[in-house]
Design brief:
The strands form four sheets. Strands 2, 3, 4, 12 and 13 form a five-stranded antiparallel beta sheet that branches. The protein has a four-stranded antiparallel beta sheet with strand order 6-5-9-10, with helices on one face. It has a three-stranded antiparallel beta sheet with strand order 7-8-11. The protein folds into three domains: 69 residues, Alpha-Beta Plaits, CATH 3.30.70; 115 residues, 2-Layer Sandwich (Gyrase A, domain 2); 173 residues, Multidrug efflux transporter AcrB transmembrane domain (Multidrug efflux transporter AcrB transmembrane fold), CATH 1.20.1640. With 473 residues, it is an alpha+beta fold. Helix 1 packs antiparallel against helix 13 and helix 9 packs across helix 13.
Length: 473
C-alpha cells in the first residue's frame, strides 16, 4: 500500500512538471508575484518555445526540378542535392527548414519564418554547380556550330526554329562536353598560394569515387584542355573585367594523368575572389543542375497565427468532449481516466518540446486524433471490469482482471496503428509525416497513461467505500 502511494505521488509530480514545462507562463507569473511580495528569489521555470512549421508561423515554400537527363544514379544525385541545399539554408539561420525529395526529380524547400520569396530564391541559387568538361572532337564541334548557324539563319528569316531537326543541340557548348565529374564528388576546397608567383590558387579534393573518375578523365585528355565551370560559367575571370562571364572558359592543359583526387585551379584572381569561390564550393556544390523554382508559395504570419489559434481551440474542444463522454458513460472511473487523459496531454506536449517536434497543422491534427484514441484502452479496461463486477468479484480483483484481460486487445490494436504510422512516415510527404509522427508519439504515451496512470488512480481512489456504492462505477 505504501509503494502504491509513492507511485501515485510520483505521477502527480511528473504531471505538474510536464504541465509547467508545456506552458510555464502562469507558473512564472506566480513566481514573480511571490518574489515581489516576499522579496524572495525563486527562479523561473525555463521556457522552451514550440517549433512551429511553415503553415503556422508563415514562410516560403519552393519546388525545384532537377535536370537528371545526364545522370545515371538519379536517386543518389537527388539525395546529394537535398543534403547540399539543406546545408546551404542552415548556414543562413533558417529555423527548422524542410528539404525533401518529391517524386523522382523534384525538391521541396520549406523555409519557416522567411516571407521574402526573392530572398529565399537567392539563398538557394547561391549554391554552386561545379562541373568538369572535356574538349569535343572537331567533328562534334562542327555539327553543333553548323546547327547554330542554321538556327540563326532561320531566326533571321523569322521561321519556326522548332521545325529544324535536332535544333536543341544549339543549347550545348560547341567546344566542351560534360564528364561524370561534378561537385557531387567534391569533399573540400582550400585556398593555397603558388610558391613561385605567390598567386592564390584553389585546391580541390575529391572523394575516392571522384578521384577515380578524375584520374580517368585526365588520363584520356593528356595535352588537352579540361574546362572547369561553376554554375554554368567559367570559375575564373579570364578577361579581367571583374565578372564571371558565361563565355569565359578556364581550361587548363592536362600535362599528365592525375592520381590522388586533387585538382588545382589557377588564374588571375585576388585572394578575396579565391576565398569567395572556395567558400561557395565548401558550402555545397550541387551534384545536378536546378533552375528557378517551378512553384513558389508564401504563407503570411497572420494566416499562420489564425491557423494556430483554430488548431488549439480544436484540441481543447476535443479534450472537453472526450472528458464529458467518459464521465457520463463510466462515472467515477471515467473521471479518473479523464484526469489521466489531462496528464497524458501535458506529458505529450512536454515531449513535443523536448525532442523537439516541428508542429504543423497536420501534426496538430495527429495529436488531436490521439486524444480520442488515448481513451480506447480505458474503455476496453472498464468494459472488462464491469463484466467481472457483474460476475460477483470484488473491486480489487475486478480491477486486476479487467487490466489483464483487456491488455491483448489494447496491445494488438495500438500495434497495428503504429505500423500504419510507420508506413506513412516512411513513404509519405512532409505534410503526412507530421501527422504520422505526432499520432505515433501520442499512441505510445497513451499506452503509458491508460495502463499505468489510470491503474494507479483506481488503486488509490477506489476503496471499500465503493463496494457499498457500486452504482458509481
Amino acid at each position: 500500500m505504501q509503494q502504491k502511494y509513492y507511485i501515485f505521488i510520483g505521477v502527480l509530480v511528473l504531471a505538474v512538471l510536464a504541465g509547467i514545462f508545456s506552458y510555464p507562463n502562469y507558473y512564472n507569473k506566480g513566481v514573480d508575484s511571490v518574489n515581489h511580495k516576499l522579496s524572495w528569489t525563486i527562479p523561473h521555470f525555463p521556457e522552451k518555445p514550440y517549433i512551429l512549421g511553415l503553415d503556422l508561423q508563415g514562410g516560403v515554400s519552393l519546388v525545384y526540378q532537377a535536370d537528371l537527363s545526364k545522370t545515371i544514379d538519379k536517386t543518389g544525385a537527388m539525395s546529394g542535392l537535398r543534403d547540399v541545399i539543406e546545408r546551404r539554408v542552415n548556414m543562413f539561420g533558417v529555423s527548422e527548414p524542410v528539404v525533401e525529395i518529391q517524386g523522382q526529380d523534384r525538391l521541396v524547400v520549406e523555409l519557416p519564418g522567411v516571407t521574402n520569396v526573392e530572398q529565399a530564391i537567392q539563398m538557394i541559387g547561391q549554391t554552386p554547380y561545379l562541373e568538369f568538361d572535356e574538349q569535343r572532337t572537331a567533328d562534334e564541334t562542327k555539327v553543333i556550330t553548323d546547327k547554330i548557324k542554321e538556327v540563326q539563319d532561320a531566326q533571321a528569316k523569322k521561321q519556326d526554329v522548332s521545325k529544324i531537326k535536332d535544333w536543341q543541340i544549339v543549347l550545348e557548348n560547341p567546344y566542351f562536353k560534360p564528364t561524370d565529374l561534378t561537385g557531387k564528388y567534391l569533399t573540400k576546397a582550400v585556398v593555397i598560394f603558388d610558391p613561385t608567383t605567390y598567386k592564390p590558387q584553389i585546391q580541390l579534393q575529391f572523394n575516392d569515387e571522384g578521384s577515380k573518375i578524375f584520374a580517368d578523365i585526365t588520363g584520356r585528355n593528356i595535352k588537352k584542355p579540361i574546362a572547369i565551370f561553376l554554375d554554368g560559367a567559367s570559375i575564373i575571370d579570364t578577361n579581367g573585367d571583374g565578372k564571371i562571364d558565361g563565355q569565359d572558359i578556364y581550361a587548363p592543359i592536362v600535362q599528365d594523368k592525375i592520381i590522388g583526387g586533387k585538382a588545382v585551379i589557377t588564374g588571375d584572381m585576388s585572394s578575396q575572389k579565391a576565398n569567395s569561390i572556395a567558400s561557395r564550393l565548401n558550402s555545397g556544390a550541387l551534384p545536378v543542375k536546378i533552375g528557378s523554382p517551378i512553384s513558389q508559395q508564401t504563407v503570411g504570419p497572420t494566416l499562420g497565427s489564425v491557423s494556430l489559434q483554430k488548431s488549439l481551440l480544436a484540441g481543447i474542444y476535443g479534450l472537453i468532449a472526450v472528458v464529458i463522454f467518459m464521465i457520463v458513460f463510466y462515472r467515477f472511473p471515467g473521471l479518473l481516466a479523464s484526469l489521466a487523459l489531462v496528464i497524458y496531454v501535458a506529458i505529450t506536449l512536454a515531449i513535443f518540446k523536448l525532442i523537439p517536434v516541428t508542429m504543423s497543422l497536420s501534426g496538430i491534427g495527429g495529436f488531436v486524433l490521439s486524444i480520442g484514441m488515448a481513451v480506447d484502452a480505458n474503455i476496453l479496461i472498464f468494459a472488462r471490469m464491469k463484466e467481472e463486477i457483474k460476475s460477483g468479484k470484488g473491486l480489487a480483483p475486478a480491477i486486476d482482471e479487467g487490466f489483464r484481460r483487456a491488455w491483448p486487445s489494447i496491445r494488438d490494436s495500438n500495434f497495428n496503428s503504429l505500423i500504419v504510422c510507420a508506413i506513412l512516415f516512411t513513404v509519405a510527404t512532409s505534410f503526412i509525416k507530421g501527422f504520422a509522427f505526432t499520432l505515433a508519439l501520442g499512441i505510445l504515451v497513451s499506452l503509458f497513461s491508460a495502463i499505468f496512470i489510470t491503474r494507479i488512480f483506481l488503486m488509490v481512489f477506489v476503496g471499500k467505500w465503493a463496494e457499498k456504492a457500486k452504482w458509481i462505477l
